Amino acid sequence: MNAAITLPLLGLIVGSWLGVVVRRWPQGRAMAWARSQCDTCSHVLGVGELVPLVSFALQRGRCRYCGARIGWFHPCIELAGLSIAVAALLVDGGLGPRVWLDAALGWALLCAAWIDAETFRLPDLLTLPLLLAGLGVTYLEDPSALYNHAAAAALGYLGFRGLDALYRRARGRGGLGQGDAKLLAAAGAWVGLAALPWVITGAGVAGIVLALALGRRANQPVPFGPALALAFFAARLFGG
């Protein structure tokens, strides 16, 4: 079975699993071995109730046991996992290991972005491994580019930390979190110095669009992780 079939199917499965991670990780709940259950009645779900998208459609978005609404979170993150796989296939052509690496990167960024959107927090357990993975992938793909990508990681982190320090001095409160700086450092490790300005510009535009879509006022915080993750993934697909 080739990547054109297996990767989208895996995207649905990964998306379903990420739904568990996003909901449980910030709360410190078990993820690896705990059985999936209804959030309302706590009934343990069977295999037939865990099929991505299909179970939600057949149950019409409700728990079979208590009738509570399941909500759109699970099908949305499953579709996002599928979309990342399809995007990697379309851009990379479905040949070689790169398509698998890019899909895995996209899924990790999806998890980080969704957690940040809900908690205003980017966990180090996501951002720091992404940084190391970016340097590792760079070494495997083009060892001569390793110093360039390492410099981009350092510049991305220090640049964002510097901007946050200036913002704090001017406004008396933080503007960019340390998690954002670490995620930009990870982006630098994956895409290098030349693409780093495009990541920052794309994230800025996406952040403005997100703020407008959410109807946020100038003094209301907006999670920057989702915008940065989107720009990061696009830079890797189209130029990194």
Protein topology:
Elements: H1 3-24, H2 54-58, H3 73-92, H4 98-119, H5 124-141, H6 146-171, H7 178-191, H8 196-214, H9 225-238
Helix pairs in contact: 1-3, 1-4, 3-4, 4-5, 4-9, 5-6, 5-7, 6-7, 7-9, 8-9
Please, could you describe this protein's structure?
The protein has 240 residues and is mainly alpha-helical. It folds into two domains: 95 residues, no CATH class; 143 residues. It starts with a helix and ends with a helix. The mean pLDDT is 86.
Question: Which terms summarize this structure?
Answer:
240 residues; single chain; 2 domains; mainly alpha; 9 helices; globular
Shape: globular
Number of domains: 2
Largest sheet: none
Q: Radius of gyration, Cα only, in angstroms? A: 19 Å
According to DSSP, the number of beta strands is 0
Structural class: mainly alpha
Proportion in helices: 55-70%
Question: pLDDT under 50 segments (min length 5)?
Answer: none
β-strand percent reads under 5%
Cα(first) to Cα(last) distance is: 28 Å
Order of helices and strands: HHHHHHHHH
Mean pLDDT: 86
Number of helices: 9
